Amino acid sequence: MTSALTGDTLVLGYQRTIVVHGVSVELRPGLVTALIGPNGSGKSTVLRALARLHRVESGSVRLRHDTGEFADAAPLSARDFARRVTLLSQSRPHPSGLAVRDVVAFGRHPHRRRFAAFTDADRAAIDHAMKLTGIAPMAGRPVDHLSGGELQRVWLATCLAQDTGVLLLDEPTNHLDLRYQVEILDLVRALADGSGTALGVVLHDLDQAAAVADEVVLLHQGRIRAAGPPADVLTSEHLSEVYGLPVTASVDPETGLVRVHPLRTIQRRRPAPLPLANEGTR
User: Can you tell me the distance from the alpha carbon of 104 to that of 161, in angstroms, rounded to the nearest whole number?
Assistant: First the structure.
């Protein structure tokens, strides 16, 4: 399924406080869009609104279908929306007493009739998701025995088993060591390039955003400060302004990717030189 998701002039808040002011985001098939910005800038709130998990005060969330036409996502049932869009959120329940494969199977619920047995397509989707995320060897293990990083990959596999055209990821590399961070980002890139999935990813690591994203949206105080290709957004001027400290951005000559270098405001003190061996005897 090829589909795209847009948020048009979204105004979002908590109780009576508006925290996102007229933000527009478009997730296009085959592209990775990274939402970045300081804590409290509104990036996760925008992502949750795109997933219909946060009330939209004004503006709209719309889906584009295979016909190329956009339609308001609000009238869709939860099941129909979940066949098109899935979210890997930061806060998830901790399942107990289940095997890894059972948890990944949750991703097939939008595609199944109530109490229906798993079809061959369901089982194939579950197997494929576990293989992509590298958890197939632990399919029978209880999730209670997994590390935080392993459980993160189980939940990602659950999202992939849902087999949607739009995938939203809120800090997908959290709790992962360096190897699995790289593998998850490679998987994100492969999903966009290989299957035409439209991906929206919230990231704190700016170098990761530069490496994986086609488009970057830099948020500050609930508004878009800059949006476009990584090289246009991840500039010293933009980042220094938004993060409130001196930041330099340069292009790595070996990879061609933007690298971000925050400058220390507190210089590390050099240790005092040790006295000479015979200095204390003089």
Answer: 7
Phi, psi angle pair for 102, to nearest 5°: -65, -40
Rounded CA gap, 249 and 218, in Å? 15
Backbone angles phi, psi at 142, to 5 degrees: -65, 140
**191, 138 contact by CB (below 8 A):** no
CB 30 within 8 A of CB 196: yes
At residue 10, the pLDDT reads: 98
| Tokens standing for residue 175 | 């709790």
Strands (E), the chain: 4-14, 17-27, 32-36, 58-64, 70-72, 85-88, 166-170, 198-202, 215-220, 223-228, 247-251, 258-262
**DSSP-derived 3-state class of residue 64:** strand
> Tell me: the pLDDT tens digits for 245-271?
999 999 999 999 999 999 876 555 666
pTM exceeds 0.85, yes or no: yes
Q: Going by C-beta distance under 8 Å and a sequence separation of 6 or more, which residues neighbour residue 43? A: 35, 36, 37, 202, 217, 219
17-27 sheet: strands from edge to edge:
17-27, 4-14, 58-64, 70-72
Which amino acid is present at 262?
P
Please, where are the H alpha helices in 168-229?
178-195, 206-212
Q: What is the pLDDT of residues 201-244, one digit of tens each?
A: 999 999 999 999 999 999 999 999 999 999 999 999 999 999 99
